[in-house]
Specification:
Layout: H1 3-23, H2 25-40, H3 44-48, H4 57-63, H5 69-80, E1 94-99, E2 105-110, H6 112-133, E3 142-145, E4 153-155, E5 158-161, H7 163-167, H8 173-176, E6 179-180, H9 183-186, H10 191-202, E7 207-211, H11 214-228, H12 232-235, E8 241-244, H13 250-260, E9 265-272, E10 275-279, E11 288-290, E12 296-302, E13 314-315, E14 324-331, E15 338-349, E16 352-359, E17 363-364, E18 371-372, H14 373-386, E19 393-401, E20 410-417, H15 424-438, H16 440-447, E21 455-458, H17 463-470, H18 488-493
Parallel strand pairs: 1-5, 3-6, 3-7, 7-8, 8-9, 20-21
Antiparallel strand pairs: 1-2, 4-5, 9-10, 10-11, 11-16, 12-13, 12-14, 14-15, 15-16, 17-18, 19-20
Helix pairs in contact: 1-6, 10-11, 11-13, 14-15, 15-16
Length: about 500
């Protein structure tokens, strides 16, 4: 039997297997909570929070407060020191090392139980695509995953590394011959050198799947095009699936269309160090199927209430469409009512499908407007589409400009374009008008003459790469924050502005 035929069969089997939890999400969520509590009762955290007397969801809310990394740091430090049965029975297999905005370096546990869900979900996302599209050509060519280094360190028997680097150790045997780049190249730490080596290794290969965070895949695409003097679609004629995650694709879509030169399928995945949460299961709809049978018990808090003294927590059965929620998870890695920092909105309840709307700590509210990531991304996308000429945005970020030397305060947008557009004034107007339509607080500040219309600062090419290099976060899983309440990023980018006042 051919590889393509086997992939189709396997895709059907997995689809059939997943049908039950897709149709009965609340049943599976209740089962997961019971299993988590049973296992968690064997741990120090479980004893500290009286798990033996947790019989209902309301008991769970009463006994287990919502936490962030700072509030579980004491437990993490005990595990790092070699203690067992702290957050989950035994010790974790890994710590996924991440960079927090408030906690510095964070060590997120990954256990024997939780690693399976990461690997299974990534596999299912691709198999679901094959099932829905019928495209089995993707299994024949080479697959490239642009990711962090798989080199792991060890402390008291626990391996430590980036999530993507940890996942690199779990590539199924049947995919190893297709997998690129080589192990040696994947281990290169210096990002720009790594991309150059990936280009050398892959430029003459038959790539069918390319995956990674859009901003870093973009760098790879640009170097492939420069070296081959062809667009990516011409260079890799069988490239038919792009898999991405980590950021909203919309701001990058126009430049990706230009770099690839033709339309192709893409699927979004939502893996976090804390757990694999969702993937895109429909070809014609970019919402993400929430994985309710993945060792994760979900809770949600409305963003508008999140900073209240005691915000109301909702199980999955109580959520509504169209509301912005902070997502809270309890997992088989030993995270309990843990705030991962992401915000989501439900676009479907049968089955449960979401869109990621941003980060709870990434917003602008310097003047009380509380503008969030999804609002600025939609506004930029609208402005680009309304332009008379094609505009290609490479990267952007927004910061408040408070008390400028002249006139009223405003939102300052730093944008790196592929080619500087002629109609910046119109682009500013269109983005600002759409932002006002989405956010009434922002509109009131504009109409009340507290703020003036946003201002776009065009920055030189590679300005954002220089910023990420400057802070030691170039490449891998790192992303430029779309929004800031301070001006740390803005102050760095100021020296790269082209259209100065």
């Amino acid at each position: 039997m051919t590889k393509g035929f086997l992939a189709k069969i396997f895709a059907r089997v997995i689809r059939f297997k997943n049908k039950d939890w897709i149709k009965n999400p609340i049943k599976y969520q209740n089962l997961i909570l019971k299993k988590l509590l049973r296992k968690g009762g064997e741990t120090e955290f479980g004893r500290d929070h009286d798990f033996k007397n947790v019989k209902t969801y309301n008991d769970f809310i009463e006994k287990v407060p919502v936490s962030d990394y700072e509030e579980i740091r004491c437990y993490i430090e005990k595990i790092l020191a070699g203690e067992k049965n702290i957050l989950w029975p035994g010790v974790p297999l890994y710590f996924a090392k991440t960079s927090g905005t408030t906690s510095g370096v964070k060590y997120i546990p990954i256990t024997k139980d939780s690693i399976k869900t990461h690997i299974t979900s990534a596999r299912d996302a691709i198999l679901n695509y094959i099932y829905k599209s019928g495209n089995t050509k993707v299994v024949y060519g080479k697959h490239i995953f642009i990711q962090g280094s798989p080199v792991l360190n060890k402390k008291n028997g626990i391996l430590i590394g980036r999530l993507s680097g940890i996942a690199a150790h779990y590539v199924p045997k049947y995919m190893l011959n297709n997998r690129m780049p080589s192990w040696k190249t994947n281990c290169i730490q210096e990002w720009e050198k790594k991309v150059d080596e990936i280009v050398k290794e892959t430029i003459n290969e038959d790539l069918t799947i390319i995956a990674g965070i859009p901003s870093w895949v973009q760098m790879y695409f640009e170097r492939i095009s420069d070296k081959s003097e062809k667009n990516v679609g011409q260079k890799f004629p069988n490239f038919s699936l792009f898999i991405y995650g980590g950021v909203n694709m919309d701001p990058y879509r126009s430049i990706f269309d230009k770099l690839i030169g033709r339309k192709l399928d893409s699927i979004e995945v939502y893996p976090a160090s804390e757990g694999f949460i969702a993937y895109q299961d429909q070809l014609n709809n970019d919402s993400l199927l929430l994985l309710v049978n993945n060792g994760i018990f979900y809770e949600f808090i409305e963003v508008s209430n999140f900073f209240n003294k005691k915000p109301k927590r909702l199980p999955l059965s109580k959520v509504e469409k169209g509301i912005n929620y902070v997502i809270i998870i309890s997992t088989t890695a030993g995270l309990w009512a843990y705030n991962i920092g992401d915000t989501v909105e439900f676009v479907s309840l049968r089955p449960y499908r979401i869109k990621v709307t941003g980060r709870i700590n990434h917003f602008i509210s310097a003047f009380g407007e509380h503008v969030i990531g999804s609002e600025v991304e939609k506004a930029l996308n609208f402005g680009v589409k309304r332009s008379n000429k094609k505009i290609f945005v490479r990267e952007f970020t927004v910061a408040p400009k408070i008390n400028p030397k002249k006139g009223r305060s405003f939102h300052e947008w730093f944008i790196e374009f592929d080619t500087i557009p002629d109609e910046l004034n119109n682009l500013e107007k269109n983005i600002d008008n759409f932002l006002q339509k989405q956010n009434i607080y922002y509109r009131d500040l504009i109409t009340g003459k507290i703020l003036k219309r946003l201002v776009i600062r065009v920055v030189k090419k590679n300005s954002f790469s220089n910023y990420m290099k400057n802070i030691g976060k170039l490449g891998g899983q790192n992303k430029v924050p779309r929004l800031s309440n301070d001006r740390k990023i803005a102050e760095f980018l100021k020296k790269f502005i082209i259209n100065k006042d």
